Amino acid sequence: MSPSVVDRLRAAGCVFAEDEARLLTSAASSNEGLEALVARRVAGEPLEYVLGWVEFDGLKLAIEPGVFVPRRRTELLARSAASVVESGDVLVDLCCGCGAVAAAVAAAAAEVAVHAVDVDETAVACARRNVPGDVYLGDLYVPLPAELFGRVAVVTGNAPYVPTEALSTMPIEARDYEPRIALDGGTDGLDVLRRIVVGAPAWLRPGGWLFVESSRAQARLLVSQMTAVGFEATVRTDQEIGGTVVVGRFG
Fold it and tell me: Is the Cβ–Cβ distance between 196 and 94 less than 8 Å?
């Protein structure tokens, strides 16, 4: 590994410059190829876009520029869902992005029927490379098959939850490269999450589960929203990875 690569990455603000240099060097097939990859990273492009893959909960998943990059904190969402699904259950993953949550749950739980949805065409194309199930293009529950009505065991949602005014404070990797539709949650960050909560009871079977990621500050509001539509709601957190998940049990 060339020290100059590490130095350039470090100068660009890459905290884990040595690790990134190793990954970029491994991904390059020539010196010219390495230079091109390093230039993209130094310009601020997310490392995952440059490499073409992202590691999530032990899986190596395909990802493309323009698709939301799953964060490690979202592993709490995937693990929470995986802890309750059983063989033969139906899982619906909303705002699936590259399909990280759906893929992780499917990998952890055998014989689960997976259905994933995203409103973005690029994300859907990417998720179809990662998810062992059906991936639909559309708005939340709209594209799901009618036969799933009242039969879903688990709904997960890693919806956008950044308040609109806070978008400008996000790191350049997210602000300038990831799609705004995957980040902007409206005035208080809960526009899409509220719709997920309100729509879930019609699709869940009795005793079904809803898991959604949020910030810790938003969790209390989501608990109230879930309770209002018939859920028993609690909050799970993982300080090590910074994850917050609001959990609802229906009926």
Answer: yes
Both tokens assigned to 139: 């708005």
Q: Which helix (H) or strand (E) holds 79?
A: helix 75-82
| Helix, strand, coil percentages, rounded to 5, for the chain | 45, 25, 35
93 forms bridges with which residues in the sheet? Answer: 116, 156
From the CB of residue 119, how many other CB atoms can be counted at a distance below 10 Å? 20
What's the mean pLDDT in 38-47? 93
CATH top-level class of 72-250: alpha beta
Taking only the tens place, the pLDDT of each residue in 63-91 is 999 999 999 999 999 999 999 999 999 99
The answer to whether residue 3 scores a pLDDT higher than 80 is: no
Q: For the chain, what is the total number of helices (H) and then of strands (E)? A: 10, 9
Backbone torsion region of residue 176, taken as left when φ is above 0, otherwise alpha when ψ lies between -120 and 50, otherwise beta: alpha
CA terminus-to-terminus distance, the chain: 57
Residue recorded with tokens 């809960």:
190
Q: Could you state, in order of their start, the residue ranges of all structural domains in the chain?
A: 3-62, 72-250
Q: Which amino acid is at 128?
A: R
pLDDT at 1 over 80: no
> CA 136, 124, 122: angle at the middle one, nearest 5?
145
Q: How confident is the model at residue 172 (pLDDT cuts 50, 70, 90)?
A: confident
